[in-house]
Specification:
Layout: H1 2-10, E1 15-20, H2 28-40, E2 48-53, H3 54-63, E3 70-72, H4 75-88
Helix pairs in contact: 3-4
Length: about 100
């Protein structure tokens, strides 16, 4: 998580979106949310951190990609979202995860 925050800190917009599904996976991903909130306190110079459910993130990527800067997600969620990003760019199978 610190790596993602460090990447976001270097970017011009200094925005990070933490992708979760803690509404349905109450054990592991609630901890994910808590750790992300704790780590964010070590980066007070980040302008914005928001938390978004993975399904809503897919909608945002499709309808409002300009609102996205740095995404932090679990491996499973990032794999699905990277496939979506590749499809949106019409390059599925070429883009990295």
């Amino acid at each position: 998580m610190r790596f993602a925050f460090k990447c976001a800190k270097k970017r011009q917009r200094k925005k990070i979106t933490v992708v979760t599904k803690s509404n349905a996976q109450r054990n592991g991903l609630v901890l994910w949310d808590e750790v992300a909130a704790a780590v964010s306190k070590d980066f007070p110079d980040l302008v914005e951190m928001d938390k978004m459910l993975v399904d809503a993130m897919a909608v945002r990527m499709t309808l409002h990609p300009e609102m996205i800067d740095t995404i932090m997600a679990t491996n499973l969620q990032a794999d699905i979202l990277s496939d979506l990003a590749a499809a949106l760019a019409r390059s599925i199978g070429i883009g990295p995860t």
